[in-house]
């Protein structure tokens, strides 16, 4: 069994279109019991049986942590992605029985903070739906800045404004509204923690500015689910299990290892948690490291790879798995 | 530098300039030298955003050393207690981007850190450097009284008079080491008293 990924048998209880790109899915337990407790920022990995292949995608839980009668996730359709979000949009209907993992939180609130400053971009709003609900219930001090392309793609912006009013600031790209980041970061009271979830460019921008303006790294939290990038097919030998497998263009190395019947550990499937770290025994070719976990030194050494997001191009690759 | 013996025992580092908009230094006695050593490697203009709160030792030394760094603000206190309101006020008005540097005796570092923690700063993001005396701030676990500047092992509680073994067990919350009665069975038994924290 994969570490931290105990399974839950659920049924899809509702499917709600939110806007042109986003659909919301509701899950309940098949046995009618309550779902496990979670904290704001947690995600689950959803298993999709897509014909002969199993897709496993992580999605943030967006419901209130105070209500565990159901879990809700929001999925943004990606027409040029590898197909997981399209599968959710096209094939998942109320009544479908699915398997999801227990919730895992790699983006939790630091409740010692005096104030929580949240920055969301696009579909990066989902973990904040749960976090704001959690904080509001505890009387926590928070402020959320949310950038979206257009008002109609501001997923849940209206819900958030309704619930929290002036604690929510909206920025629309098409109106050329931009977060005044330096001013925002420089006027926060001591003891504020910063949370950012959105596209990689936004996360990097915010982290860089925060570091330059003297925010200690312990106070800056970020979440980025990098979807595995497609690439050239390649062959891998798994030394421990004695198998040689092929990784397809659209498949991640982790998925290929799983398809071969090996059950490696994972938590995030996005290159940030470190769970899937695997030793390289030998290689002849070049790595395409897409993770945020290994150090640059690790990347250069060629001794380690994160199979959930990273790829390889070359003649041979032997992994310790 | 004090050795790491048990987990609660603080470990200190060496001050180094951090990126930030403002810099707050709190130091006593020879802690001033940690600041001037750091200043040697700091970027130009670093102290123009700095506020230094300094409590000189009995000899009154090092004030000129710190003034020479030309910090934006310089405050000199007689005791930590007299400097505390200013420290608290500074922290209360501060914004993210303020970096905190503490140097000198363990008692100074511990108490200033206590104020910084209350203001919401994580202890891992505070720079500390131990300089000068190893004297400890000790809490008597029996009467809860705090005795400052303990240099001997065992030491007498200034409040209840018990003879205490000064442990390495440190409380961040009260910024003090724990002292436990060393001769509870037989008070007439007085072990040799040694200078342990000069
Ligand atoms: S599963 Fe988290 S880094 Fe690969």
UniProtKB/TrEMBL annotation, chain A:
InterPro entries: 2Fe-2S_ferredoxin-like_sf, 2Fe-2S_ferredoxin-type, 2Fe2S_fd_BS, Beta-grasp_dom_sf, DmmA-like_N, FAD-bd_FR_type, FNR_nucleotide-bd, MRET. CDD domains: fer2, PDR_like. It holds the Pfam family DmmA-like_N. The keyword Metal-binding applies. It comes from the Bacteria. Its EC number is 1.-.-.-. Gene3D superfamilies: 3.10.20.30, Nucleotide-binding domain of ferredoxin-NADP reductase (FNR) module, Translation factors. Coiled coil: none annotated. The keyword Kinase does not apply. GO terms for molecular function: oxidoreductase activity. Residues 5-110 form the FAD-binding FR-type domain. Signal peptide: none annotated. Transmembrane segments: none annotated. Its cofactor is FMN. This is PDR/VanB family oxidoreductase. It comes from Mesorhizobium shangrilense. The lineage of its organism: Bacteria, Pseudomonadati, Pseudomonadota, Alphaproteobacteria, Hyphomicrobiales.
Automatic annotation (TrEMBL), chain B:
It comes from the Bacteria. Keywords: 2Fe-2S, Flavoprotein, Iron, Iron-sulfur, Metal-binding, Monooxygenase, Oxidoreductase. Residues 137-180 form the Dimethylamine monooxygenase subunit DmmA-like C-terminal domain. InterPro entries: DmmA-like_C, DmmA-like_N. GO terms for molecular function: monooxygenase activity. Residues 5-126 form the Dimethylamine monooxygenase subunit DmmA-like N-terminal domain. This is Dimethylamine monooxygenase subunit DmmA family protein. It comes from Mesorhizobium shangrilense. The lineage of its organism: Bacteria, Pseudomonadati, Pseudomonadota, Alphaproteobacteria, Hyphomicrobiales.
């Amino acid at each position: 069994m994969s570490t931290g990924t105990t399974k839950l048998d659920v049924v899809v209880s509702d499917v709600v279109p939110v806007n042109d790109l986003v659909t919301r899915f509701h899950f309940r337990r098949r046995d009618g019991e309550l779902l496990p407790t979670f904290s704001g920022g947690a995600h689950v990995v959803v298993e999709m049986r897509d014909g002969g292949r199993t897709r496993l995608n992580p999605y943030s839980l967006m419901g209130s942590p105070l209500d565990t009668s159901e879990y809700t996730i929001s999925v943004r359709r990606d027409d040029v992605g590898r197909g997981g979000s399209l599968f959710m949009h096209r094939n998942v209907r109320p009544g479908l029985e699915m398997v999801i993992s227990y919730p895992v939180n790699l983006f939790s609130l630091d409740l010692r903070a005096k104030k929580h400053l949240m920055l969301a971009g696009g579909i990066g709003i989902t973990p904040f739906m749960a976090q704001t609900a959690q904080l509001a219930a505890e009387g926590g001090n928070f402020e959320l800045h949310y950038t979206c392309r257009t008002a109609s793609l501001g997923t849940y912006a209206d819900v958030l404004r309704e619930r929290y009013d002036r604690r929510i600031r909206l920025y629309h790209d098409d109106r050329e509204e931009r977060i005044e980041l330096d001013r925002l970061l420089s006027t926060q009271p001591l003891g504020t923690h910063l949370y950012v979830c959105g596209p990689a460019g936004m996360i990097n921008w915010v982290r860089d500015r925060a570091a330059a303006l003297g925010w200690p790294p312990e106070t800056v939290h970020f979440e980025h689910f990098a979807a595995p990038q497609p690439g050239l097919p390649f062959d891998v030998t798994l030394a421990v299990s004695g198998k040689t497998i092929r990784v397809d263009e659209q498949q991640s190395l982790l998925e290929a290892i799983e398809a071969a019947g090996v059950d490696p550990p994972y938590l995030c499937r996005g290159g940030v948690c470190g769970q899937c770290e695997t030793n390289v025994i030998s290689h002849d070719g070049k790595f395409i490291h897409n993770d945020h976990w290994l150090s640059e030194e690790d990347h250069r050494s060629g001794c380690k790879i994160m199979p959930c997001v990273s790829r390889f191009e070359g003649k041979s690759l032997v992994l310790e798995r | 530098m004090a050795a790491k013996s048990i987990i609660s025992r603080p470990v200190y580092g060496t001050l180094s300039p951090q990126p930030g908009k403002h810099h707050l230094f709190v130091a006593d006695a020879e802690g001033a030298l940690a600041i001037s050593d750091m200043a040697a490697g700091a970027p130009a203009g670093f102290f123009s955003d700095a506020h230094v709160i300094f409590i000189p030792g009995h000899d009154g030394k090092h004030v000129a050393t710190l003034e020479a760094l030309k910090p934006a603000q310089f405050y000199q206190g007689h005791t930590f207690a007299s400097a505390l309101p200013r420290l608290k006020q500074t922290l209360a008005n501060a914004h993210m981007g303020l970096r905190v540097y503490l140097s000198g005796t363990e008692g100074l570092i511990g108490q200033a850190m206590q104020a910084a923690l209350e203001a919401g700063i994580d202890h891992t993001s505070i720079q500390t450097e131990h300089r000068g005396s190893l004297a400890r701030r000790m809490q008597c676990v029996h009467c809860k009284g705090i005795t400052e500047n303990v240099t001997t092992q065992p030491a007498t509680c200034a409040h209840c008079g018990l003879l205490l073994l000064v442990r390495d067990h440190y409380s961040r919350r009260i910024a003090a080491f724990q002292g436990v009665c060393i001769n509870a069975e037989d008070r007439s038994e007085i072990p040799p008293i040694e200078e342990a924290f000069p």
